[in-house]
Specification:
Radius of gyration: 24 Å
Shape: rod-shaped
Largest sheet: 4 strands, antiparallel
Distance between the termini: 75 Å
Oligomer: single chain
Length: about 170
């Protein structure tokens, strides 16, 4: 005889209740997606920022944003090194430094990225080089995210875009 026949209503009620409880537990165990948040760097944090460069004027899209650092100078060859804003992601800060020569991106370096635990180190050991290759190939911040490193990729792209904006590209 089948377990869900009408002559055993208590079994059906028990099975339905157990299924409902299991479904609710599974739904409650899901974590909601939270997008990375952008944190503007203060004038005390930065690689080599001059004291007169944070004036609170508009730069980029928000009134309180200013480039984190502009390390390097424009030389006769047109080489400029600019560090982008620090972007605070769910797993830690991401910051990118860009070297531009004659209007072309010649080097991209991740100055800061999450390294707090072995999983971060494992993910970023393959994600950061891939993001660098993508940025050099695209010559812009319009690059693909690395699978498994979505938060780092988003922070990398935001910091890269702020560095490119500061460099005038």
């Amino acid at each position: 005889m089948h377990a869900l026949k009408k002559n055993r209503p208590l079994r059906r009620v028990t099975l339905a209740a157990a299924t409902t409880v299991t479904g609710v537990v599974l739904l409650l165990s899901l974590k909601p997606h939270t997008p990375p948040t952008v944190v503007q760097a203060s004038s005390s944090s930065g690689q080599s920022q001059s004291s007169g460069s944070s004036s609170g004027g508009t730069s980029g899209g928000s009134p309180s944003s200013s480039p984190s650092s502009s390390s390097g100078s424009t030389k006769s060859t047109g080489t400029k090194t600019v560090t982008g804003d620090t972007v605070q992601t769910r797993w830690g800060p991401v910051q990118v430094r860009v070297t531009v020569k004659n209007g072309r991106i010649t080097d991209v370096t991740a100055v800061a990225y999450p390294t707090d635990n072995p999983k971060d180190q494992e993910i970023n050991s393959y994600a950061i080089p891939q993001l660098r290759r993508e940025a050099l190939a695209a010559q812009s911040a319009q690059i693909d995210s690395v699978s498994g490193a979505t938060y780092t990729s988003d922070g990398y792209k935001q910091s890269l875009q702020s560095a490119l904006d500061s460099a005038g590209l």
